[in-house]
Amino acid sequence: MKRKAWLVKRTTADGMIEIRDSVDLGKEYIVDDETTKMINGHNFLACKDWTRLMVKVIDDEAETWFPTELLSFVKEESKDGGMGKDDGKK
Question: Where does residue 88 fall: left (phi above 0), alpha (psi -120 to 50 degrees), or beta otherwise?
């Protein structure tokens, strides 16, 4: 399922992943829930490996992967047709 998500913070809680300052907080993306998966990476500055739940995000410029903890997602459409933000957890 594709839905909207907004960037709500630039850095993960442990500081292993940072989104560049040129990306505005509140920027809207389209995410595809079917792309959500655990991804392993390495922070070269901290010399530490990390594992994160990440999702592919799509904007006008490109597709990339963001940690889900940096995003706030739109909940699924309700029966009355309304949509709302949730707390960023799936």
Answer: left
CA nearest to 20, candidates 31, 11, 12, 28: 11
Give the Cα separation of 28 and 51 in Å (integer): 24
Angle subtended at Cα 58 by Cα 67 and Cα 39, rounded to the nearest 5 degrees = 30
Query: pLDDT tens digit string along 26-81?
Result: 999 999 989 999 999 999 989 999 999 999 998 877 889 999 999 999 876 544 44
29 beta partners: 5
Looking at residue 79, its pLDDT comes to 47
Predicted TM-score (pTM) of the model is 0.74
Q: Is 33 helix (H, G, I), strand (E, B) or coil?
A: helix
Phi, psi of 28 (to 5 degrees): -95, 135
Q: Are 70 and 14 in contact (CB under 8 A)?
A: no
Token readout for 73 is: 């997602």
